[in-house]
Specification:
Radius of gyration: 31 Å
Helix content: 25-40%
CATH architecture of the largest domain: Beta Barrel
CATH superfamily of the largest domain: monomeric porin ompg
Number of strands: 37
Shape: globular
CATH class of the largest domain: Mainly Beta
CATH topology of the largest domain: Porin
Number of helices: 19
Amino acid sequence: MPWSLAPLLLATAHAQGIDTHRPLVPSAGIATENGPGALWVNPANLAYDPDARFGLFLGRTADASLTSTAAVIGSDGLSLGVHNRLREEAGALRSDWSLDYGSSVALPERLAIGALVSWNFVEGNSNYLAYDAGLSWRPLPWLGLSGVAQNVGGAGASLGARARTGAGVALRPLGSFALFGLDLARTFPPDPDPAAIGASDQATGTVRIRPIEGLYLRGNARAGLVDGRLTLESVGAGIELYLEGVGLGGHLDQSPDKIPLQVGWLGTDEPGESLLRSGRRVPVLELDRTPPYQPRGGLLSDNATSWIDTLELLRRLEDDPGVRGLVLTLEGSSMPLARYRELRDRIAALEAEGKPVLVYLSRGAGNGEMYVASAASRIALHPAADVSLVGLSVQLTHLRGLLDLVGIEAQFVKRSRYKTAPETFTHPKPSPANLEMQEDLLDDLFTALVEGIASGRGIEPDEVRGWIDAGPMTSEEALDKGLVDVLLYPDQLEGELEKIQGGEVSLSKLLEMPQPRSPWEDPKQIALIYVEGPIVSGESSPGGLLSGRSTGATSIVRKLAQATRDPQVRAVVMRVDSPGGSSLASDSIWRAVEQLKSKGKPVVVSMGGVAASGGYYVAAGADAIWAEPETLTGSIGVFSGKFTTSELQEALGITTTTLSRGRYASLQSTVTPWDDLQRARMQALVDHTYAQFKERVASGRELQPDEVEARAGGRVWSGRRAKEMGLVDELGGFQEAIADARARAGLPASSKVGLVTYSDRGSILESLAPALATRALAPSLQRLYQPEPLLQRLQPLLNAADPLLTPMLHPDEGIWMMDPWSMEILPR
């Protein structure tokens, strides 16, 4: 998110008897304040606002006896502030400073904890440290509870920085229109005895009203408890105005017998708030890599925008009257054709709304980039780049010869004919069934590519085929043949855009534009659950340098159970982008989906690039299945096997003696091959799992057993073919599946619905440990890991190898339903 200015109502309330050693936030309570302003109120609330913020604030008493200036910067639960207080003492001005660092960690169940360390430098006195600790909980969209302890453990009490504890409640009975807060606090005297003279109790009520977007009205009242009676100490009111992410505000605190407090600030709180909007804005979206489904937070990871967030940002542009168009810069990425289509559909939707899109191919273009760009009304290419629209190919690698050479035997059993995953190890070349299946898939995907480009460029498919068969083209050739519309250097883009728009426009990066994201949960939610990569038992893994993400059944079952319990979640969309995996793990996820449906919550599946074998198994029971025409799905089949090394050991002079009790004790031995009886037993187990797989499909898709068999056999289908055969319900992408889930849950299209995801970590302690480890080091270290171009090019190949390696790494899983390949449009 962009640097924006935080809504901080800084005040110095010395006249009202409040701690003047820290900036204060009038009309913002312990449970209500969010963003960097929470640094000095309750640091736990920093976790509820991940957006990057900056603020500059000034407060003073009317007689100028006390002036306070503060600045704060914060992002993603971290905040750094500096505060200066200029005070008049004995006829002289004294200047004190503090440097404040806060950190907060979001925990499961909308809990958050936070802490503040404050270094105080007091003129004419000793310097000291002070500490705060806070805890917040927002169990419901309209309710928040918080507690805080301030100036704990420091030596500043004798200098006026007295220890203080407080508890607060926040209420939002009218949603975003009004936020009410009530705080109860006790300030302790320097003496450690709380009953000593000087202890004080206070009650503070706050309100913040939003009558229209970009306008907020604030109010507060503070009462002190004196001799068992409440006495009004002060009342205050303020106004906030926000224009395009920047705002101004003022606040006045007044009490009957104290000096008034005047406050001014520059800031904003919730990104996207604005009274007025520019009517000629053109966002710029730069895609230099594939947005991840689930960005990996942590020490060595980028805070990348997720795939669904990217699509949602583009969708919002369609309804924004101030947006005139879009500039999309494609700099090389690798995705399945199905995901390119999701991006392409958003470009086409903007064009349909009369908002022209300029696609800039800054590093040239391959199949995927041209597929996306063809939906735009204008395509620009770098003059030194080329266009490699060369078509699709599949390379099938077989290791049988290598295994024979080194003395390793691959023993596999499978069901059925088209379940060709084991052929990588058991065949020297593709079987006729495998070739038939691959040819059909290539035909389907190639047709989609050609027809998509043809429709976008307004030409016949045969002309696109001619482009492809002409091979890679220089920029001049691409321009001459009509693949692109203009050749431009980056500095010429703005001039070209002005020609398109008929005048000057305001450019801004889409991923840095303020977005309307509330730190409070939406009352109605759709949970997004991702099944990505090979499916295995246990917990999900984010992958590493040489491996992709894998999905653990334990993690997914826990998330589905959480969605079942969560009263705000009205439906679940399960995004499946997986070649399959363990039959046991897949069945566990299928069962959890059934349990969720039994509670009356719809489950809709959105298929990504591939949702085959075990990936289809987990989807089969959903209320609805959406796939793109280019999705690879089906593969209803199973296999199991092992590798034996007896010949290799003999060649190396290694002797193994096996002693066993039980006919099948050595069934999984890597030394002893299967005999006929053992092979028959394994085949029976595979047959049983295959029959169970078909039962799951028959039940979920409402098909007869013979109808399932005609669609099964281990064959992979394109999404278009799967729709024709009833294996999927609708053709469409992630957002169409979300809209379907909304409708099935009875949520009107006009109602506000939040999209939520769940952490892979289950307990609070599991979430806390890695978060604290990350916070212990400088945030800048999060940028240490930057994928090199070579790794970006190799990553799709490494991900494709996962299905081959996963069964070897999980021999205890037994029977597998998985495909050994995926069709990705590789980077040029």
